[in-house]
Amino acid sequence: MTLLIDFKYMNKLLGSLFFLLTLAGNALAQKNYNASETKYFDLIHTELDVKPDWQTNHLEGQAELTLKPWFYPQEKLILDAKGFDIKKVVLNNQTVDYKYDGIKLEIPLGRPFNSKETIKVNIAYTAKPDELGKIEAFKDLEYKGLYFINTDKTKPQQVWTEGETEYNSCWFPTLDSPNQKHTQRISITIPKNFTTLSNGLLKNSKENPDGTRTDTWVQNIEHSVYLTMIAAGEFKKVTDSTFKAFEVSYYVEPAFEKYAYHIFGRTPEMIKYFEELLQTKYPWQKYAQIAVRDYVSGAMENTTATVHGSGIQKNDNQIVDNNDDGVIAHELFHHWFGDLVTAESWANLPLNEAFADYSEYLWANHKYGKDEGDWLNFTALNQYLDEAEDKQEPVIRYGYADKEDMFDSHSYAKGGRILHMLRNEVGDQAFFESLRLYLDENQFKNAEINNLRLAFESVTGRDLNWFFEQWFLKKGHPRLTVEHSYKSGNLSIEINQTLDSLNDLVYQLPLQVEIGTEEGFTQRSLFLNKKSQTFDFQLEDKPTYVKIDPNGYALAVISQNQSTKELINQFENSKSAIARFKAFKEITSEEASDGNISPNPMFDKTKRSVALKALDDNFWKIRELAIHKFFDYDGDDFLKIEKNLQSVIRIDSRSQVRAAAILAMKNFLNPQNDLLFRNALADTSYTVRAAALEAILINNPSDATSLTAKFENIDDVNIFSAVAGYKALQGKAEDLNWFETKIGQLSSGELYQTMGIFGSYIISADLNTQLASIPFLKDIALNESAWYGRFSAAQALMLLMDMDEAQAALKEVFSAETEERLQQIYSQIPLN
């Protein structure tokens, strides 16, 4: 599973909306129903005949499960079956009585069955995922396994599933545990104009007399229950003709059919790259990817059939800003790490997610170069470190309070960085050979962290227990202070590890140091294994700079004392984008030389000079950061800075940098810039167009109405935000329908991103418009699939409740129960 939006790919709403989502109060997870009963049986095969009903949001189902006891004879079978109507249970062709509490289905077997006997149980049932909240244990349920997307709010009619962690038992009875693997046959009956997708291969498609069609999908290679999926809707299937080894296909809404190759088209190259890297062929029969509406996660690696949120669907004007290779690589890599070899328990989730997270770095480094790879690695490291300020747990943790707690930056970002350090520890060849052995020895099985350690030890011949114990099984990270000095030809580097009640472990840690000289720079390797260590290097001349961990590969907080002169030399001479980025941030910090906070650091001549140089840096992120330093600048060298920013808008290769330059200049009050902004309205990038539109509209030009009319129907969240920002200031009643229509088309993440603009519009509007907006907001607040979408609408309603005139009307519209529910939604956002 991919962390939602952008830990990775909004700055991952706090780094990761998915992490927030897992903290949002999932009662099903909080109850953490013990699946210990499942260990007594082995699920062998599942056959499902299902028919979704969009009128009731029910799923009519017929399930046949083939199972056998593990070892000990068993006299009853207990299945996970959440919120069903159970109609009939047949055991080995005999109708039997059963016990059912809405959560577990208990079936007496009539006699003891031993491990050499199989049983078949047939269950006729109705799944009612939208009604799970009627069960006390599930009243605050966030996930529900099966999701109906209907035709209201201009969204297309779809149905899709999300099984991780243990939510597939919300739509079929099963043993819902990651260590249960089965083969399956799923027949799904849908309107004949719909396209379906499931695991494995489509074996049969039959039209029925009632205008429906039944598609039968067969997955004949065993995989974990949580990886089972179905999806159906009006999708266009695009088969990638560039790949011949097996079917690679992309399922998109009709409007995006012509962009499917541009969205997903690097997938075949990724498959070949990962196969070569891992020395292991892709192990499944096909690879499909589908984009669905209102998806509740970032993406999900269901075996042979990855599900993405609709945000991955982009036209060429959006793809130019940023493709989604990271999430595509992440879910594909899971098909080795997670699907082929699956974590034995949720405690071992990093065996799935750390590898998938690391694959994003592998692909970025391979496809787009070292700077892009290192930036991704550095961003992920800081995501973990941000989380670690409030939460520190072992990466592999058996004592979690809630299995959903495992889906955090420890399992993902920290886990991925540990793998990179392990690679540096053993070397590239041994690292990938060890991964090959791990996959080979554990294929189609479940694994624990020790299986990975043993594979590395078998290949390298080294005892790596210290590494796995230190990084995977203990919490925290090293905190280092670094001082360096030069005297009489000797460079001395002193490194101290901070030990206290928060962390008393002395880490063993390899480090790189980059030493700048007049002739260039050199890199040396260090190894820490003591609380305090000093490293000496003989140098003929005093170094121009000394930088510990120049590439940002160390999973540590490093405090190093460097002079401004050293930092400038590091910025100007290091080949590492991360070292230059760190130096630039330090040089241009808001702290003035006297220790006070400067109103604008660019008023300092030295800082301003470095920032101007940074506008020409080879790495676009540094150029973008430099531009942010000049937002609304009005000091010395103004004309020079303005000229440089104008040049960026005209010629910079990255759309994000061009857009940043436009926004930096929007308040410069130079009429000549208006022409530059208007030319940018034709940029290939929607992000640049949106920035230009915002910059033009901020001055309320005479043609503002015609400009907004030109852009108001473009389906892009950035352009919507620019147009909506202008309309919000006007507060015109006639714009309410436009707001509601456009917002109704947004994903939950985009709702969270833009609902504040709608809130501003409501405050600016007259009372009648405010009241007219209430049913729309109420519907989102109570019914949006993801909590952060509901929260954003509840937040807007709370704004109205603070306004006396609107408050009285709200009291008439809402029952006390509804108001209480809205308050509950509003208070759900986790701020810790």
Automatic annotation (TrEMBL):
Top enzyme category: hydrolase
Domain Aminopeptidase N-like N-terminal, residue spans: 45-227
UniProt signal peptide: 1-29
Name of this chain's protein: Aminopeptidase N
Coiled coil spans: none
Family classification: Belongs to the peptidase M1 family.
Reactions performed catalytically: Release of an N-terminal amino acid, Xaa-|-Yaa- from a peptide, amide or arylamide. Xaa is preferably Ala, but may be most amino acids including Pro (slow action). When a terminal hydrophobic residue is followed by a prolyl residue, the two may be released as an intact Xaa-Pro dipeptide
Keyword Protease: yes
Gene Ontology cellular component annotations, sorted alphabetically: cytoplasm; extracellular space; membrane
Cofactor: Zn(2+)
Keywords recorded for this protein, A-Z: Aminopeptidase, Hydrolase, Metal-binding, Metalloprotease, Protease, Signal, Zinc
Gene Ontology MF, one: zinc ion binding
Residue ranges constituting the Peptidase M1 membrane alanine aminopeptidase domain according to the UniProt record: 266-471
GO biological process: peptide catabolic process; proteolysis
Organism, scientific name: Arcticibacterium luteifluviistationis
EC numbers, comma separated: 3.4.11.2
